[in-house]
Each structure stands twice: as structure tokens, then as C-alpha cells.
Design a protein that fits this description.
Strand order of the largest sheet: 1-2-3-4-5-6-7-8
Number of strands: 10
Strand content: 5-15%
Helix content: 40-55%
Order of helices and strands: EHEHEHEHHEHEHEHEHHEHEHHH
CATH architecture of the largest domain: Alpha-Beta Barrel
CATH class of the largest domain: Alpha Beta
Number of helices: 14
CATH topology of the largest domain: TIM Barrel
Shape: elongated
Largest sheet: 8 strands, parallel, barrel
CATH superfamily of the largest domain: Aldolase class I
Distance between the termini: 63 Å
Length: about 375
Amino acid sequence: MSDEVWLCDTTLRDGEQAPGVAFTYAEKEKIATCLASAGVTELEVGVPSAGPDELEAITKLVKLRLPTRMSTWNRAVPGDLEASFQTGVKAVGISIPVSDQHLQHKVNKSRAWVMEIMGECVSLAKKEGKYVSLGLEDASRADTDFLLEVAQEAELLGVDRIRFADTLGVLDPYGVYLRFSSIVQKVKIPFELHAHNDLGMATANAITAIRCGFKAVSVTVGGLGERAGNVPLEEVAVALKYILNRPAAFDIRRIKSVSSLVSMITRREIPRSKPIIGADVFTHTSSVHLDGIRKDIENYQSFPPESVSRKHKMVMGKYSGMKELNGLLKAEGVSMDEHQRLELLIRIRLLSSHKKTPLETSDILSMIKGSAKI
């Protein structure tokens, strides 16, 4: 089996379930085209049973013949699968609740029903020649012995991939290991983790799953999704390259353009400190850090920002020192005596604190010219 990790993007399905997010077909086409050209392994493009408009949009996406596998999300209901077949997708996801909580208090079904409906739906999809991903909803709260039983039956049925869903985002990395590692060792089907970020551990859980032998991770651009969202595509893609040294088809140089596109379409501003894609994540203002970077950039660089089409940025603020100011003045060809430089540094620190933002070179030059007042 190849060492490559599959990034299965669900921005157009689970991402669209984020409050206030709804994509037009034109927007879906732009996002799908951007992600496919960047190399995502699979695009989960929607839920055909949601209605005629959704079915038509998915059908049009399939006809684009983008260089990626397209899949749909379906309940374990034959009618859902029949709707998916109409779209022409080559892959279908079949979601079945497996925790006793969901079985008893959501669908009012038994564990025996899980095995029966799984067999019926998988057989139906396989007769149509579809790649089948079996999604086990609320797997993070299911009985582990039952999970193994379901996975082994899925293997006999010819399921192509099993998706364990941490539906409520309640797992931690060690919990991922305890719950799933033994199952992965006993079942030969590729496994995927679909993690939610309710406790802020989605990326860590995804990386742990990969270390445990999972082949795939469900991701969305920027972590878009229900409640606190899903595993962010950009975080996993960069971690694969620079932490795990594992190959993935996704071109991380495209992260900036993909995230900017989704941000614009959803009208959701990217938080400044958002890992990988936030405006401030490669910005340095502390005199200690700036001095360390000048001596050797590896002192404060976890990975090169150029690899994700970004650059380091030096700005001045409350914790900037005279060395940084002297460097800036020299680069701009500005001559000032020691008293003037000290006075300017004090003003820079005060203005930065007042504005609640670091100062760009243009701000400081304006101060020198007397156009900036505190």
C-alpha cells in the first residue's frame, strides 16, 4: 500500500453545514475546480437527497470531469443512494449511526439493524459499480467491540473505505489511539478519520489517526463546518509534509489561494492568528525574535512560509527595540541622532499600543514626517 495520505475534502458538504453558509452552483464549481487542481484526493460534493437543486448541482459538477474522485453523502437509505446514482458520481458515502446513544435515542434501531442495513446498502451500491465509503457516525462513543464487528463485516461486503466519525469532537489524541489502533491492525480496508473540532483537537486527532495507520483524513478549507468546524485542510497538509514526512498529492503552495477563495465566497474573515493562513502567523515584532531571525532564520521558523506562498514579515510594536529601529532607518536612508531615535521608539511603542496593532514601515515613516499623532 502506498505511503501517500488521502485528503478527502468535504468543504462542499460538511463545510456548507456551517451556520450561514450556502453555496450557489457557480461558487461550488469555483471551489471544486480550485481544490481538484491543487490535488485533493476526493471531493465530497453534497447530498443528492436534499432536493432537486442539490441533485442538479452535483450532476453538473460530475460532468466537469475534474481530476479527482467525487463522492456524495447518503443516509443508509436506498432512496438516498438511488438519488446519488442519478448524478453519475463514481463514489458514494453511506452513513450509519453506530453508538448506542444514536441507535436508541436518534433512530430507534438495534445493532442488528446496523448489520442488516449496511449489507443492503453496500450491496446496492456495489451492483452499480460504485466506490463505497462506509461512514460510522458517532464512532467515538460506540462500543469498540461492536466497531470491530461492523468493520469486519464491511470488509466481507467489499467496502472500499471505512470512515470513523468523531461526530461530537470529543476525542483526544490518546483516545484515538486507544479506540481505533487495534481495529486498523485487524481490518485491511483503508480507514479515514472524520473529526470535528469542538474541543480544538481535530488536527491533533487527525495526525494521531495517520500515525495509527489511517489512510485518509476528512478535511475542509479553513476547518469550515458545523459548530466548531472540521479538520482544516491546510493544517493537515502542512503537518504531513513537515512533521510526518508523509506524501500527499495536495500542493501546499495552493493553500493561500484556496483559503482566500473560500473566505471570500463565505464572507468569513480568516482569523489573524489562524494557523498557516492567518495574516499574523509569519509576522514578527518581538525584539528577541527579530534578533534571532537575523542570526539564523531557523531560530524561529517551523517551516518556510514560501512553501505555502507566504513570507516572513517584520513589524514594530510594544516589544520592538532600538536594534530593529536602527535597521529600519538604515534601510530607508533616514538619519537621526540618538535622542531622536529614542524619542521615536517611545512614540512607536505608544502608538502601537493605542492602535492595538503593529506598525508598518509606512506608519513609522509617516511619524517621522510628523503626519502621525498619538
